[in-house]
Design goal:
Number of domains: 3
Distance between the termini: 65 Å
Helix content: 40-55%
Strand content: 15-25%
CATH superfamily of the largest domain: Histidine kinase-like ATPase, C-terminal domain
Order of helices and strands: HEEEHEEEHHHEHEEHEEHHHEEE
Length: 498
């Protein structure tokens, strides 16, 4: 069915079908005209035979018993008198007179004696005849004369066969010629389609706005339909390229602003935090309300500093800055990160599942550590106390490394799951602010993982949420295995409790 959707095939089929109809009409008309002409010739011959038969020997009221003699091969002559055939015969291939069968005689009796030729179907051995019946002068006897139509039928059948074979050969040649012609005519359209397909494969969603692909100039002739399509596509590509360039310039301005603002905010935020902490420590006699306010200033400065650091990191990732490329012991990072999460969330149950051998990847150690830390922090902050969080690390057959962080918490709503890795995405805004979340943690996870050539995804339902990070394998040997695991942690399926 898919092949029938091809424009080239449909055009070829249409051309062949039209030619087949024309050939069929010509063939039918030719056969009908030839048959009519040949039958007319037979009718003339029958009239001549009637003349010869009426002048043969007889009793004066019709031909005698030898009236068939002197006629051509296959000629049938019969005398009908009183509603019965009184005499009949025909000449066989050897020139001998043969008597008609009862079936043939019965067919002759149905013939009208009007002096006009009629087609009569005699028995199987003789076939169809063109016959004329004429009355004698006494109008008591009818003379029937006929000639076979086998020669006409043979000629017409042979013509039909020859015409059919020639038509089939012609249609085959026409199909080949139509295929070549249509293919040549559609070649510019294929080049236009190839240009569109090339543009469709460009990573336009990743900042690549240089659309330098265009339809060739020879395929943009406005005098042709394909040329108008090609010219319209070129105009569209130019418009889209301009729009993408403007959008990218705007995004670059915003990204530079965020990066510059984040960088500039780090120093005043550090000063606010430092002065508030210094004041609390050097002024022990401050009123409790003032001390409380200073503590709030310090905590908010810390939260603001984390937000600024996250924004600065995302801006750097957006600008595609090169990350560190070194061998990183991912097993050690997972062990240490889970230990830190255990210390930060003692009301959760933490499980760790590691392979016997350490797993090494190539990348930026600090950024990969942040990925694991953010996933564990997300599980700790957004699940209730008593939730079990299981972290596993494995290497596939193809060398790809998979990190999974799973929990048996309440799950993630489907509506939230669609935007979970976007910036400032929160399932519960009020809860997120209460816990100090900036809504950038999972966005950083996705940015860092994709910068390392990996992928990140999530599957969630009530009672089970699994974040999966897949990273490409390392290009170097393995790093040394970690010496030990943090206190209070277990390896395998045995949970560790605070």
């Amino acid at each position: 069915m898919n092949r029938l959707r091809s424009l080239r095939l449909r055009l070829v089929l249409i051309v062949v079908a039209l030619l087949a109809v024309v050939a069929a009409v010509i063939g039918v008309v030719s056969v009908v005209v030839l048959q009519s002409y040949l039958v007319g010739q037979v009718d003339n011959s029958v009239r001549s035979a009637v003349q010869r038969a009426t002048h043969g020997p007889g009793d004066g009221d019709g031909p005698g018993g030898g009236f068939v003699l002197g006629q051509g091969e296959g000629t049938v002559i019969a005398l009908v008198q009183g509603g019965a055939v009184v005499s009949s015969g025909y000449l066989d291939a050897d020139g001998r007179q043969q008597t008609l069968t009862d079936t043939a005689q019965a067919a002759i009796l149905d013939l009208a004696a009007d002096g006009r030729p009629h087609t009569v179907d005699l028995d199987g051995s003789l076939g169809e005849y063109r016959m004329i019946a004429v009355l004698s002068t006494s109008r008591t006897t009818a003379l029937v004369t006929g000639l076979p139509l086998s020669g006409v039928q043979g000629t017409v059948g042979q013509l039909g066969t020859i015409f059919g074979l020639v038509a089939l050969a012609g249609l085959a040649l026409a199909a080949i010629a139509a295929t070549l012609t249509v293919s040549a005519a559609l070649r510019p359209l294929r080049r236009v389609a190839q240009t569109a397909a090339t543009v469709a494969e460009l990573p336009l969603d990743r900042g690549d706005v240089d659309i330098d692909v265009r339809v060739p100039e020879k395929d943009t002739d406005p005098r042709t339909e394909v040329g108008r399509v090609g010219a319209a596509l070129n105009r569209l590509l130019s418009t889209v390229g301009t729009a993408l360039a403007v959008r990218k310039a705007s995004e670059d301005k915003v990204r530079h602003f965020v990066a510059d603002a984040s960088h500039e905010l780090r120093t005043p935020l550090a000063s606010i935090r430092g002065y508030s902490e210094l004041t609390r420590r050097t002024q022990p006699d401050l009123p409790d309300e003032v001390r409380h306010n200073l503590g709030r200033i310090e905590s908010e400065a810390i939260r603001m500093t984390k937000l600024v650091e996250d924004l600065l990191l995302l801006a750097r990732l957006d600008s595609h800055r090169e990350l560190e490329q070194e061998d990183v012991d991912l097993s050690l990072i997972v062990v240490e990160s889970v230990g830190d999460a255990h210390a930060a969330g003692p009301d959760h149950e933490w499980e760790l599942d590691l392979p016997d051998e350490p797993i090494v990847v190539t990348g930026d150690e600090a950024r990969l550590r942040q990925v694991v830390v953010n996933l564990l922090a997300n599980a700790r902050v957004h699940t209730p106390a008593g939730t079990t969080v299981r972290t596993s690390l494995a290497a596939g057959v193809d060398g790809a490394v998979t990190v999974r962080v799973a929990d048996d918490g309440p799950g993630i709503a489907p509506a939230v799951r669609e935007t979970l890795f976007e910036r400032f995405a929160r399932a519960d805004a009020s809860r997120a602010r209460a816990t100090g979340s900036t809504g950038l943690g999972l966005a950083i996870v996705r940015g860092v993982v994709e910068a390392h050539g990996g992928t990140v995804g999530v599957e969630s339902r009530p009672g089970e949420t699994v974040f999966t990070v897949t990273l490409p394998p390392a290009h170097a040997g393995l790093a040394p295995a970690p010496d030990s695991t943090p206190d209070g942690m277990t390896t395998g399926a045995v949970p560790a409790r605070a």
